[in-house]
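Input for the complex:
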Amino acid sequence: MSYFRAENLSLHFGGLKAVDSVSFAVEKGEILSIIGPNGAGKSSIFNLISRIYPPTSGKIFFEDQDITEQPAYEIAGLGIARTFQNIELFENATMLSNLLVGRHRHSSTQLWQELLFLPSVRAGEKLHRRRVEQVIEFLDLEAYRDKLISGLPYGVRKVIELARALCSEPKLILLDEPSSGLNVEETGDMSFWIRDMKTELGITVLMVEHDMTLVNRVSDRVIALNYGRVLAMGSPSEVQRHPDVVAAYLGA
Amino acid sequence: MRFLFKTDYEDDIRLFPHSGYIVSYGILLAFLAVAPFVLSSYLVSQLVFVCIYATVGVGLMILTGFTGQASLGHAAFLAIGAYTAAYLQQYNVPFPVYFLAGGLLTGVVGALVGFPALRLTGIYLVIATISFAFIVEEVLARWESVTHGNEGMRVKTLSLFGQAVPQNGPAFYFLCLGVLILTIIGTLNLLRSPTGRAFVAIRDSETAARSMGVNVSLYKVKSFAISAAITGLAGVLFAHKLSFISPEMFTLQLSIEFIIVILIGGTFSLHGAVLGAIFLVMIDPFLTYLKDDLPVIIAGIAATFGADSITAGKIHGNVAAIASANGLKGAIYGVIIVLFVLFEPLGLYGRWLKIKLFFQLFPLYKRATFKRQKIYVKSERNR
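Predicted:
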């Protein structure tokens, strides 16, 4: 049994088939990239996995558990974290509180305990902070702890969003275009971090990406999509040479 | 300029980041402690209203300022707290019991309002809360066996542990102040724990909050319940302060006043709730002063510029008619809201922060520091 599986996953908006019976599997500890032209249904697959959209048909399994019907807020609790293509940070909060929201699934304090700020809450806060600091160190974000997100540049926000996802200590992380809007140097950093997430933190990565340099550098396997259907699946070089993929990108 | 050198995670958790806060809040507390003995009884009475309005402001701030859910129904929550007190008092229930019961009942009603509000955002939520307030007002007027309808209810003098606490004495002032301080401390505790961060997360991006594992529906209901419960507690004190309550006291205008409290104070900080309450309560004597003295002053000015006594009398009459026109208060509130939204969206507390920074950075303060600018990265978000 695979670690993560999507079976005949479909998402239709009226007559538009955004995702059309897509099946794939992710093995534990691998980095799987999804590529494809604009509108191929890549982000829609992510939105199906994180339950922002309910699928029209098909099933999603994670660690042999059917998660197709789970409510969206429980997906994080299962150990699946994600980032967004257009950055969904909490703009009017500091970076620290953004990252601490990432710890939400690990907090267990009750409302009345929090109102009194009992020692258990204080201890929990310190524990969360320690974990957050590990992520800050991992992604070199030391300079921004008390900065408001609304005042930070795009490239930094992109990294902070990754940091917030890592703070939830996920087993599987979904990265939606991690390099969009980043310059060459920042993309290079990103590829190191994605590799390190796999080797040092043991996180399985599923990622949507347009930058083929990044895809080639980090991915173990690649899936190519077009019009909601899988065109090719395999190693990065295999997929790039596949005639259907070439046709999709360059026109037949 | 002060630099905070943090050496412990505790430095980011504690309520007072450095000793300067303890000094300034200490001075404030000392002033508030001697206030009832040095100020006139009228000003002390106004201070009690400041405390009650600020408590409601803190409650509304949790819901609107931190969770991002607007409400124009908080007068109804205040009414439920007030009527619970008046009703239970008839059966000789002691104050601590009906004080907590008022908060609890209002909290439950708040949670019930929170459920239908889950599917509504923005202006629709505002309309839903207004309708809720109308329903409560109507129920209070019609349910005569409990609320005595439009006759209203008399609230007996508060008695605490066998001691009478008259609503004009210093003891009642200290009671209201104590409730306000405890509410603020509780709210600050909440805001530095996971629940408070979940509230802020919902305000800024529901999608992201959900994908981080925040049960958005549950936390919205929690926010409604906490906000309502705090308002209910304030309602009990409100009933005692006025010693008489009737349905027409808890109208839409009162809800709008509460919105003014947080809007003018600044919707991002609890300081805002207190500053807004001071502003709103203290503008009332100012308006009364205008009503009484403005016609005399204007007529006097006209007389100095050579108007004869008949013209001066006419001017006096006209100005007096305008100053005592019906609904003038509402109009002035409206103008104040518009001006604040346009020119100082961060409210009084935002202005205070700017003044503080000016002196901290002097003479290096740059005019452009707080220039508002458009942000373009917020495109096609998932909603």
